[in-house]
Amino acid sequence: MGNYCNKPVAHVSPASFVGIGSTKSQNKAKQNSNSSELKADVQTSAPNVDKSISNNLKSFTFNDLKEATKNFRQENLIGEGGFGFVIKGWIDENTYAPTKPGTGIVVAIKKLKPESFQGHKQWLAEVNYLGKLHHENLVKLIGYCSDGKNRLLVYEFMQKGSLENHLFRKGVQPIPWVRRVNIAIDVAKGVAFLHALDANVIYRDLKASNILLDPDFNAKLSDFGLARDGPTGDNTHVSTTVIGTHGYAAPEYVATGHLTPKSDVYSFGVVLLELLTGRRVVEDERIGFSEKTLVDWAWPFLSDTRRILRIMDARLGGQYSKKGAQAVAALTLQCLDIDPKLRPSMVNVVAALEALGSSNSIPRTPKCENHATKHSSHSQKSAGNSNIL
């Protein structure tokens, strides 16, 4: 395993979409985007929906979706962000015609701001990827609307919302350890599926708010607006405008703009760390966290099996396997390796997690362990400041 540099790495973070099934995102991470570069990227590389759109998708009119949402009634709002908003609607299960609230099936409808060139490009990407890709761990795109300046997407409704809300929102029942491992397996399978495609699709926006949960807490990836085809032939990477979310983006991608499937592996490692600790990737309000990511803070604990239990989510109440937690921490460490070549493939990640998930032994951790260790007591100011692009 390669050595990890404890100096904070640079990350870039444009305004991110809120998860389809989540409530308003509470992530207060610092965000920034290079709009001029992104605009140029949109103008030169936006796909042509008319030529490549899947016949499996329903083409809705704007009036259809106005009726399905009762004119986008505020009380049905699921989430919103710089892109626009997501709202609940009701359609017939067979014909997809709009129905009255409480009848038919519930769907999540994302409406983009007409003036958002960034949102338009991501709308195109979602239609093209989710219109063609089908997997049990990818959210289902039912249809779209391209009516004048109106751009909307219609998805299956994920009743339990986002992983982000279940991990970090106050007043929400904590996710048990076994369920966290199963969620990690689901997410890993979804990403592994993308990487195994001929196009070698790179998700590029793996984070807790983009992981949605169904009524049984099965996890699915949502928001494919930043997805890109991976390198082909002799190419080792694709070069692209650096865009993503602070704390989740792989350091080599942020530094060079070189995107590979191993960039997703790093982001997955961050999600694993959030599942372990119950902490956000960036917590600006905590002393010592202003310029420090969760990875920076947790690294000394991850690399010492004797100390990993000190940063486990206190809300678990000690109800987890000590060996299981150490195994997940070891896998997290591999995924976060500073050298992308030393990170495991997602296929291997799935295998490792499934082996862990098959274990029926979930003993309590020793009561002497301090599960409520505060981050601030272990945070040290880094010699260098993270560089937010």
From TrEMBL:
Residues 379-389 have a biased composition (Polar residues). Residues 22-36 have a biased composition (Low complexity). Keywords: ATP-binding, Cell membrane, Disulfide bond, Kinase, Membrane, Nucleotide-binding, Serine/threonine-protein kinase, Signal, Transferase, Transmembrane, Transmembrane helix. It is a single-pass membrane protein. It is found in: Cell membrane. One of its GO terms (biological process) is response to other organism. ATP binds at K111. Its EC number is 2.7.11.1. Residues 72-356 form the Protein kinase domain. Residues 22-45, 362-389 are annotated as: Disordered. Its main location: membrane. It comes from the Eukaryota. GO terms for cellular component: plasma membrane. One of its GO terms (molecular function) is ATP binding. It is an enzyme of class 2 (transferase). Pfam families: PK_Tyr_Ser-Thr (PF07714). PANTHER family: OS01G0588500 PROTEIN-RELATED. Belongs to the protein kinase superfamily. This is non-specific serine/threonine protein kinase.
